[in-house]
Fold these 4 entries.
Entry 1:
Amino acid sequence: MKIHFVLGACTLTLGACTQDVRPLPYTPTPLPAVATQEATLSTTVVSPISHPNPLAGYTYRGPTGPRDWRTVNQEQSEGN
């Protein structure tokens, strides 16, 4: 943990000590005119993807009420 703290402190110290090498009356480089650039149009035909319904085949299995656990175990056993 101490090494992380020391490395972080060194990074901040070195970053604060760096000098700006640009001349003082700095004018930033203008961005290109993106609005004048036209996007290339793709001529490929893409068919729509049909996804299956994730709820297809769902049947509601609501609680039927409390039952005797011995009877339920006998119904679900491998012997039946």
Note: The helical segments are 2-17, 69-76.
Entry 2:
Amino acid sequence: MTDEPVENAAPHGYSPHKENYAKRLRRVEGQVRGIAKMIEEDKYCIDVLTQISAVNSALQSVALGLLDEHLGHCVTHAVAEGGPEAEKKLAEASAAIARLVKS
């Protein structure tokens, strides 16, 4: 089973906040372009690193929000249904948390 959209399927947990996430990611995209420009303009390395840290924090915030939405919607729904789908969703959430902790 994939996470591809399926006709008549329930929306993803983040769907009600999709525009907010898209807006935040566009902001991050602009920050990354700004960092590239700083490098091109030979800006002070500590200033570049400060901006990279800000981008990392912004991405981490988006990731944690999406994880929270996933736990509150997808995992909760699967656990209520029980069975192998619940185990799958719990394993996915655990793997996602492990990836976030490593980054």
Note: The first helix runs from residue 18 to 40.
Entry 3:
Amino acid sequence: MKTVVITGGTDGMGAALARHYLREGNQVVVVGRSRAKFEALLASLAADGVAATGRASFLAADLSLVAESERVVEQIRASHERIDVLVLAASFIRQKRHETAEGHEASWVLFFVSKYILLTGLASLLADSDRPTVVNTSVPGAKAGAIDFDDLESAQRFSFVRSNAQQRRANELLGILVTSDNPALAYITWGPRRLVRTSLAGDVGRAMKIASVLLGAVAGQRPDDAIAPIITFVADPPAGRAAYRGATQVALVQGPHDTDDARRLAAETTALVTGR
């Protein structure tokens, strides 16, 4: 039996993965904002004859807050001795810059800083697995120079496109850090090949919401179909870092200063976390 931790596990692809691994008889920790959605997930499994009681647990958290990510780490470390699979799939789309009660830019914390906290905080539990695997649902392929180290939280200038590219590149560099510390770790940066039908959780304009619903209905794939490649990768994880769009492997973006950039990113993120 594997121990699987899934952030964003109450909706969309995260929920589809939680259902899959619970059906397989694994132990699954779901991190999300809605206990009601978690209970609905368990109810849907029970209706199919799958008893997940004792194998499924829920941690309520808003991962756009540093303190919440740290609390999740503490709770998982207190209740588990090993993690075999960590899926980082939490999402909340914001078209505009939003500052949290902690004074940090919400999207930067949710889509990168929380992942850094979880990966570094849970590193010892992943190290105790025979085949530790991390699936980071951050679409690969951002340019090597996408990160502005002088404006990581987009305080000086913000655009949705720029913010998104910076988060994606940071998550690729995060893979350098964690696989250097644990060479046995499989770190997969993954994005769906095409649109996925989801509820598009976030603070977005009406036009974007409508467009997402219409496009999803016409051309989107079901979450259960979209996650099929992830299930395959986890069953036989590739060594080290890898990047995929759907089931197709894509080249990792190589920058001239990747190792130095990864270390600088770690230092800046540690300063953000400790200095909040």
Note: DSSP finds ten helices and ten strands in the chain.
Entry 4:
Amino acid sequence: MNGLSRGINSTPPVLKNIIIINILLFLATEVLTKFGVNLTQYLALYYPGSEYFRPHQLITHMFMHAGWAHLFFNMFGLWMFGKILEQVWGSKRFMIYFFATGLGAAALHLLVNYFMISHAMGEYKAMLNTLSPETFDAFIRSNFSEYYGALNQELTDKWYSNPGSAQLAADAQGVAKLLMDRMINIPTVGASGAVFGVLLGFGMLFPNTEIMLLFPPIPMKAKYFVMGYGAIELYLGISQPGSNVAHFAHLGGMIFGFLLIKYWNKKTTTFY
């Protein structure tokens, strides 16, 4: 217990408060859900075209999480690397860095979503203008490949066998609209973007510090760890555009962290 107390007490103030807020909001979300209150709908980040979007979500989504594991790994990574950055930079600069990288992550994530949704919406409208089994099949394959196999079995194959069916055409139109609504209304939660920014900051300040990996359990210099993680996120973001993980948000946190540190390094006369 004394070791745990010392660990908590040695955590710098801004980092400690960020972790506490994340934990409290997660617990509040779990409790309020039982009473029919969906806190995620108010505080998660929605695409600006969604009816649920509110400007404050650009900040509040950083303090929301999808589950215990999501919360734990984000807070553990933030604590492990963030406490060192706050001790080196001071609390004010660390707080600015945390929110700047979190906002940068949200900005890149929303930009990527804009291109994805705009592309899908264009194909959706084109499909409606020439609705057929072929155009529906192409629309699903291009934009919702994760549902392609199930829809082939449940709807598309039947429609190919009976292309004149008004009911199957209506069903296909309804499915397409449902998928578009889902794409627009997917909420984004988590401090991951800012955590990746903190990881990048640690790698830039202490590039030759060795980090012990969990899988596989081998040591690796921080600079190589950061570069490897960034490469993985870029690959996954490109290869898995429909993933539930916001890979480009992670990259956004790293990119904005890099730019901010480079800017600060040029302004050596101003340090918070």
Note: Residues 91-129 form the longest helix (39 residues).
